[in-house]
Amino acid sequence: MCGIIGYIGHQDSVPIVIKGLKRLEYRGYDSAGIATVDSTGVKIVKNEGKVARLEKNVDESTLRGNIGIGHTRWATHGAPSDTNAHPHLDETGKIALVHNGIIENYDSLRKLLEREGVKFETETDTEVLVQLIGRFYHADEMTLAEAVQAALQDVVGTYGIVVISADEPDSLIAARMGSPLVLGIGEEEFFLASDASPIIPHTRNVVYLDDGDLVEINKSNYEVRRIGDNKPVNKVIERIEYNLEEIEKGGFPHYMLKEIHDQVHTITDTMRGRLSLETGTAHLGGIAD
Question: Where does the chain show beta strands of DSSP type E?
Answer without folding.
Answer: 3-8, 31-38, 41-48, 67-73, 88-89, 95-100, 159-165, 168-177, 182-185, 190-193, 205-208, 213-217, 222-226, 238-239, 275-276, 281-282
